[in-house]
Amino acid sequence: MSAQAFEFDGPHGYRLAGRLESPDGRPRGWAILAHCFTCGKDSLAASRVARALAAHGIGVLRLDFAGLGNSGGSFTDTTFAADVDDLVAAGNAMTRDGKPPSILVGHSLGGAAVLMAAGQMSGIRAVATLGAPFDTRHVLHQFAPLSLQTIETHGEAEVLLAGRPFVLRKSFVDDLACHNLESRIAGLRIPLLVLHSPLDSTVGIENAARIFAVAKHPKSFISMDNADHLLTRRADADYAAAMIATWASRYLIS
User: Fold this and answer.
1) Are strands 156-161 and 164-169 parallel, antiparallel or unpaired?
2) Which of 20, 62, 98, 185 is the most buried (most CB within 10 A)?
3) CB atoms within 10 A of CB 183
4) pLDDT band at residue 164, thresholds of 50, 70 and 90?
5) What span, in angstroms and rounded, lies between the C-alpha atoms of 114 and 86?
6) Residue 154: inside a domain, yes or no?
7) Alpha helices for the chain (secondary structure H)
8) What's the CA gap between 54 and 97, in Å, rounded?
9) Distance between CA atoms of 200 and 178, rounded to whole angstroms?
10) Cα–Cα distances in Å, from 13 out to 16, 66, 121, 188?
11) 1 falls in which pLDDT band (50, 70, 90)?
12) How many angstroms separate the Cα of 222 from the Cα of each of 5, 121, 225, 241?
């Protein structure tokens, strides 16, 4: 396997950074992996799942959304809608480079993003989510009530997320309410795999149940058993990748 940097112009004037994980030999297909909220492409979950998928013959682009990692832009200016736009731009860039993606994989809020983006991207044949929320506003549960009150009153606030400080604006909060993920899932018409741990204490298993109930067939659900939300154990990331690769093989065109 090999890995290389992959940069492209984002839709909002920023240069976006990604990393291509390529399998040995001809890829069975190409995927885009969307990381969790504030995590970045080099998080343990994103990097391990991408490399494990490459080991199963699927090439993967893991990218930093604007304002995170090596991508341009400011996280303060980010919105969920902008993340969806970044995914669409990534798909276009890969297609221009001769690597058209056919699979979208999203972790946590990145799972919600791939569900929103899939219908806007030609050639996507399969979507897989890992610990994804059913409602984009679920991410606000990570914010302290005082932070949300400050954002509402003053337009922005510093919030602590996974122990790291971020400044977020009211535009981010307001944008979360603009997306009807339920209707997008119901109209997806693309094979969907939902992976979720019943022990997930960040995004509860009831989110997976609601996503699965709304989605049309073909759809599948795989329990991640004892995995935590961030897939901090390598074995859990490897298991998720193996399940995605096996499931997606039915929808890949060789």
Assistant:
1) antiparallel
2) 62
3) 10
4) confident
5) 10
6) no
7) 44-55, 80-96, 109-117, 145-154, 170-176, 181-186, 205-214, 234-248
8) 18
9) 26
10) 9, 10, 20, 29
11) confident
12) 32, 25, 9, 12
Q: Which of 62, 53, 93 is nearest to 248 (CA)?
A: 53
Calpha distance 219→107 (Å, rounded): 17
Residue recorded with tokens 């996503």: 211
Domain that holds residue 188: 2-136+180-248
In a domain, 75, yes or no: yes
pLDDT at residue 230, as a whole number = 97
Instruction: Read off the tokens for 63.
Output: 């990218």
Whether residue 172 is contained in a domain is answered as no
Report pTM.
0.96
CATH of the domain at 85: 3.40.50.1820
Is residue 215 in some structural domain?
Answer: yes
For the chain, how many residues are written? 254
Q: Which residue has the tokens 């390598």?
A: 234
d(CA 1, CA 22): 6
User: How far apart, in whole angstroms, are the C-alpha atoms of residue 218 and residue 38?
Assistant: 31
Q: Is 161 helix (H, G, I), strand (E, B) or coil?
A: strand
Closest CA to 165 of 40, 78, 36, 38: 38
The 10s digit of each residue's pLDDT in 88-147 is: 999 999 999 999 999 999 999 999 999 999 999 999 999 999 999 999 999 999 999 999
pLDDT of residue 254: 52
The count of domains in the chain is: 1
